[in-house]
Design goal:
This protein is α/β, with parallel strands linked by helices. It has 13 helices and eleven strands.
């Protein structure tokens, strides 16, 4: 089993200045990672990451995720190299397709998001390794681009993707993947198969968190979240051990029916229930080969602060 890193996600809705509070508390609490969430049009991942890295000593900061087309890949590589030189060995770069409706809004949607992602990750990784890059692809065009200050410690570039074709791309050109909430051990194994079982492939996971003394309280809080996952396509839900029964339950009784699901069904969905349930969720993902597990909090800042403390307790219990 690979060494497991525990982290926390900085929700896109949190005021940008609170990144300093969260980063410093995680650093002091010996939590391994902080992942900043870049969604359009909230807060910018590179800026948040730089602030967090500058105010901490040991915390690794992950970018979850940079849309491939939001920046020119040469600029993406330059920014990542700057972060990596600011805090060597403490950066994980997540790059994904981006939500296509958002890309459309800002005039950046490409004909083939899949091809674009492959080309962007390919050239970014080459540039980060100090190579001079000339690349004439379908979507990416670079001529003799060379970073003046490539990173001394090259950060891993992981793909934030979901579909099987995207997983195959990640297996060919990325250092790993970052998986959204709802990931379970079966889904992790499916992802590795779709990626082609590449060597030294990093699996980072965001796990929804809701820890309460009483399981039913946690389940009641989280039922609307799970209902949202069930209302659209979800590869992680499809891989759930009881996927069919889960969908039937939701179709027949809505959110209320989810609250009464067996505890083990909930444990597959996230760090949801009691503290021991959260530990069981993390242990199952670690046994499946996951390297990084970061707790995804509620969007309410006060709740997120409490969940940050839960994450510190969780990290301490796993050491």
């Amino acid at each position: 089993m690979a060494r497991l890193n525990i982290g926390f996600c900085f929700d896109r809705t949190y005021p940008s200045h609170t990144i300093l509070e969260f980063a410093q508390r995680l650093d002091a609490g010996n939590v391994d990672q902080l992942w900043v969430i870049e969604d359009c049009f909230y807060t910018a991942g590179i800026t948040l990451a730089a602030a967090a890295l500058a105010r901490t000593e040991r915390l690794t900061v992950g970018l979850g995720i940079l849309p491939a087309v939001a920046r020119n890949p040469a600029i993406t590589a330059m920014e990542l190299a700057t972060l990596a030189n600011l805090a060597p060995g403490r950066v994980i770069a997540g790059i994904g397709h981006g939500v296509q409706s958002w890309m459309e809004q800002m005039g950046a949607r490409t004909r083939s998001p899949l091809t674009t992602l492959e080309e962007v990750i390919t050239v970014v990784r080459r540039l980060l390794r100090g190579k001079q890059v000339t690349f004439q692809g379908r979507e990416v065009h670079l001529t003799d681009v060379l970073l003046d200050q490539p990173p001394a410690v090259v950060p891993p570039v992981v793909a934030g993707v979901r579909g099987p074709k995207s997983m195959a791309v990640a297996g060919r050109v990325a250092d790993g993947v970052v998986l959204a909430e709802g990931a379970n051990p079966t889904y992790v194994q499916r992802v590795l198969e779709q990626a082609g079982h590449p060597r030294d492939f990093r699996i980072s996971v965001f796990s929804s968190m809701c820890i309460e003394e009483d399981r039913r309280t946690a389940y009641t809080w989280m039922a609307p979240v799970i209902a949202g996952w069930l209302s659209g396509p979800s590869p992680s839900i499809d891989a759930h051990t009881h996927a069919d029964e889960l969908r039937e339950r939701f179709a027949g009784g809505g959110e209320a029916a989810l609250i009464d699901m067996p505890a083990e069904w909930w444990t597959e969905l996230g760090a949801i229930g009691t503290f021991d349930d959260a530990l069981a969720h993390v242990a199952a993902l670690a046994a499946a080969g996951v390297h990084d597990i970061s707790m995804f909090p509620a969007p309410e800042l006060a709740v997120g602060r409490a969940q940050l403390e839960d994450t510190i307790r969780l990290a301490a219990a796993l050491r």
